[in-house]
Amino acid sequence: MAFDIEMIKKVYAQMGAKVDKARSVLNKPLTLTEKILYAHLAEDTNEAFTRGESYVNFNPDRVAMQDATAQMALLQFMQAGKDKVAVPTTVHADHLIQAKVDAAKDLATAKTTNKEVYDFLSSVTSKYGIGFWKPGAGIIHQVVLENYAFPGGMMIGTDSHTVNAGGLGMIAIGVGGADAVDVMAGMPWELKFPKLIGVKLSGKLNGWTAPKDIILKVAGILSVKGGTGCIVEYFGEGAKSLSCTGKGTICNMGAEIGATTSTFGYDFSMERYLRATNRHDVADAANEVKSLLTADHEVYEEPEKYFDQVIEIDLNKLEPHLNGPFTPDKATPISKMRAEASKNGWPTKVEVGLIGSCTNSSYEDISRAASVAEDAVKKGLKAKAEFSITPGSEQVRYTIDRDGMVDIFKKIDGVVFANACGPCIGMWARMGAEKQEKNTIVHSFNRNFAKRADGNPNTYAFVGSPELVTALAIAGDLGFNPLKDKLTNHKGEQVFLAAPHGNELPPKGFDVEDPGYQAPAQDTTNIKVAVSSESDRLQLLEPFAPWDGENIIGAKLLIKAEGKCTTDHISMAGPWLKYRGHLDNISNNMLIGAVNKFNGETNKVKSQLTGLYGEVPATQRAYKKEGIPTVVVGDHNYGEGSSREHAAMEPRHLGVKVVLVKSFARIHETNLKKQGMLGITFANEADYDKIQEDDTFNFIDLKDFAPGKQLTIELIHTNGSPELIKANHSYNQQQIEWFKNGSALNLIKKQNG
Question: Where is the Aconitase/3-isopropylmalate dehydratase large subunit alpha/beta/alpha domain (predicted)?
Fold first, then answer.
């Protein structure tokens, strides 16, 4: 039986009437996205919301958190004055396990080094009615797909790849911890009503092409910001031909185009997956409301009428892709990779191939990669590159081990890492990375920003399907095209690798001895959540100060960031993950990866107090000590990437008042608002160039802060000359109240009395 089956049945029981009303209000056929959104409205309404404009309150069905972000979210929830979470919630211990040796040794090390954090999560989840998936249980998104995701549901999660659950027909959205706290506390959750992108898939995947290639192609079309403010809905015969976990892979990496989320209509592949994962009751319930769990037929017949943008992809013609380096939207068909690498000076020797992660760690993914490895062994080949496998869950790991796939990988010297994020989020103790040598790796992960996997800025990382990554690891050559190129085996023979094959689901069924789940305590009276004042890993939070109602005058420029400034640049992961529960300590990584426009360097900014250059956090701490407000200036899509709210909380904690950029990534903009920051955009993007290194900022009409009203900024340059520029903002009245109160959490506490 599924978790929370009664909740799921209740959602389905109410969905029909809500969808009928939405169809009547909108007076048109509905997309799947609209059905789910209107069925989860927090208030009954006759309003037809405007895509891309209306702010709307929703009631999500559940919340999921991973251990790195859960610490700060739960520390905030402890301040909300609630005895128990209001909706089903889980925490998954997957981010803090470093990949170094192998699964057994790395997991044992993590349990020792992270004991304090794991004990905190175990106790706080037990106390507040939250399910806890212990270290080694698996990666949050794979575990959610296996246990919690259900067609037509709505979920939020404190990780940008929460969107993975769209593979089971959910609207699943990545958020910051403060958003999760709202929902856990029983408050509505606010979202700007998204625009809709339809992706019509025709044909069927064949040969070396995999579901991953669909999203790699889409990323190439839309870019890292082309999906911002949008939900992507996939449909067509090609969509129905994909496995449920293949759909999950596509939705997972939709975060890399900035999409709010992605989803697919309910079909037989989802039913098969639900039944294979022992959720027959969910499948039966979904089958009773099938028509509600996909778009009205008119929508898919004439999609241009109902979506804001339509993309068509013929899977029969789709070629395997590699995306990168340094950005997940630089898409190259494998047939053109050798020429592109030569033209751009990319290193073609593949040093490491890594498969798995939350994006590509299903049974099907692993079985197809194993078929490539097995074929290579039979033909006298071994991997020329290092090769590792990261299973997505203990259930997958146990099952692939039972079915002999681990032994196959060992024959090409593959190493199985723990069921955790590992190298995908920088938790990889890669030998020699500290030398910062120029090199190439290929992986089946979702992101490939500079330094992300191993901390080396000169590691060129390329994203591909698990089967293609396996082939490239065997060849040791970035330009190898398995569709056409031969390899030389140990006998000197020229051999082709056979096209991959695998099973969508295990023929003998999934199996597992201990899935790693801890249910919350029934009696919480004696549970104490202890946080030591001496800890360098955990720190109780102090409320942020409310706005004093005055204009911000005399603010100094902290940094003018140039180019891509992701949440990895603002608050790095990797070794810094250990401080995710200690706001002051982790603030020592604030903006250390951002490139200073004035000198082209990272973590080196000019202090207007001393005239000297120093590290960003230290410089900001000096401003804070003197009570001087500061401004961060950024480029396009500022805050792209992870949902980590630390990228908003660190500047807030250290005294930054304003973030002024050309444009924001969705989650980061919301996180700034939630923490009481002023996140605004240049009304004229060219004004970015007017900002000088020693500028002072006066926000001369902030007292009149109101929805839709531009703000005026007076720049005072070093020669004393003033210059006025305008800034836009997207704050509605409720968000302005967050700003006034110092944070959304402060407002919740005030409303709770």
Answer: 34-476
- Among 667, 658, 710, 646, which residue's Cα sits nearest to residue 547? 658
Break the chain into its structural domains and give their ranges.
Answer: 5-43+51-314, 322-483, 552-751
Strands 696-699 and 711-716: antiparallel
Q: Which CATH architecture has domain 552-751?
A: Alpha-Beta Barrel (3.20)
Among the four given CATH numbers 3.30.499.10, 2.30.180.10, 3.40.50.2000, 3.30.413.10, the one describing domain 5-43+51-314: 3.30.499.10
Burial of 701 per CB tally in 10 Å (0-12, 13-18, 19+): middle
**pTM, to two decimals:** 0.89
| pLDDT tens, residue by residue, 590-607 | 999 999 999 999 999 999
Phi/psi of residue 118, nearest 5 degrees: -65, -40
Token reading at 4 = 């929370």
pLDDT surpassing 80 at residue 351: yes
Cα 464 to Cα 367: distance, rounded to the nearest angstrom: 16
Q: Are 5-43+51-314 and 322-483 in the same CATH fold?
A: yes
Virtual CA dihedral for 619, 621, 627, 632, nearest 10 degrees?
60
Between 244-252 and 268-276, two packed helices, what is the crossing angle to 10 degrees?
A: 100
Residue range 441-496, pLDDT digits in tens: 999 999 998 999 999 999 999 999 999 999 999 999 999 999 999 999 999 999 99
* Closest by CA position to 517, among listed 148, 146, 133: 133
Cα separation, 706 vs 411, whole angstroms: 64
What pLDDT, in 10s, does the model give residues 30-75? 999 999 999 999 999 999 999 999 999 999 999 999 999 999 999 9
Tokens of 200: 């019509």
Residue 244 corresponds to which tokens in the numbers above? Answer: 């449920």
Sign of CA dihedral 296, 301, 305, 307: positive
Residue 1: per-residue pLDDT: 58
Task: Count the neighbouring beta carbons within 10 Å of the beta carbon of residue 228.
Answer: 21
Question: How many CB atoms within 10 Å of residue 704?
Answer: 10
Joined together, the tokens standing for residue 575 give 């070794």
Collect all residues with Cβ–Cβ distance below 8 Å to 216 and sequence separation of at least 6.
253, 321, 322, 323, 331, 463, 464
Q: Which amino acid is at 113?
A: T
- What residue ranges in 444-498 does DSSP mark as E strands? 459-463, 487-488, 494-495
* Contact of 447 with 465, CB cutoff 8 Å: no
Fold designation for 322-483? Aconitase; domain 3 (3.30.499)
Q: Using alpha carbons only, how large is the chain's radius of gyration in Å? A: 25
Average confidence score pLDDT of the chain: 96
Rounded to whole angstroms, the Cα distance separating 531 from 526 reads: 16
How many other C-beta atoms can be found within 10 angstroms of the C-beta atom of residue 541? 17
